[in-house]
Amino acid sequence: MPTQVTPIRVLQHVRNDAALLASFILGRPATTARVYRNEIGLWQAFLNRPLVEARADDLRAYIAKCRESKLKPGTLRHKVAVIKSLYAFLYQEEQIPADPMVRVPTPPHPQGESSRCLDLKQVKAFFEQIPHHRVIGLRDRAMFLLAANCGLRLSEIARLSVGDVTDGPEDGWRVLRIHGKGDKVREVHARPEVWVHVVAYVSRRKDELLDRTPLFSSIHRGSSIKPQAADLRIPAPTIYKRFKAYCRRAELPTWASPHCMRHFFASEAHAKGAPAEAIRRALGHSSLNTTQRYLDRMERGVNQAFKAVRAI
Hints:
It is a single chain. The chain is mostly helical. It has 2 domains: 7-111, DNA polymerase, domain 1, CATH 1.10.150.130; 120-215 and 230-297, hpI Integrase, Chain A (Orthogonal Bundle), CATH 1.10.443.10. It contains 13 helices and 3 strands, in the order αααααααβββαααααα. A 3-stranded antiparallel beta sheet has the order 1-2-3. β1 and β2 form a beta hairpin. It is elongated and about 60 Å long.
């Protein structure tokens, strides 16, 4: 169980912990770094002594406390995964003689997670809620069609600029240079029937479309209360709010998020026979194992291996 820290050691251990945490999150994407910093901060408050003095029993006690607080299984799993990742890092960097958390199992995936992928009927219902004529509707339709048809993350949509678009290898197709997690860059292909919606939106804009101009911009406010970014790039939180608003209108499950469009892309590509390696490259996963976990959670219906064999 957590123990009290003597006043003499407080300042020193806070400084040491801050340095270790800074090293742990160094080089990670801003959103990931913020989440990790928050999670480790909660762990530090519970532990109440230097990070390097934590034991396996401390993490077990922390898990028990989180369960008493009625945290959702997915949230608890994420918290534990972050903490275990921290101690694996500390051991790798020789800050501790051994990793004490390897003996603590990560809580299992929540039951029913496999169903957290929107099906085609739900996706169509979502797009039916988006206006066809207003500029904001044209923008939203183009954004979310790209997300669903190219497997884009919310942050990747927000980072797209006009200069990231080039002609594709086939007539009407476009190649998008995507700035993904960890500053990794990949290319995705947008089909003509999707790109026509981007053109419909861009043609209604009045700003100058330079290479650095955001592909999707905030709608200009005549009398803004707060200052806006110079390039009016639409923030990721705004994209999230827009998505959730359409979900409510379509009466989709409350767990639906923009990331569901990425899952939908992977699921549909897999169902239509696209190789796992092609899906991995499209999603920007470093490991095929990550892509396979996506596909395993989204398997629908009878395993095709059983359908392929008929002994009678």
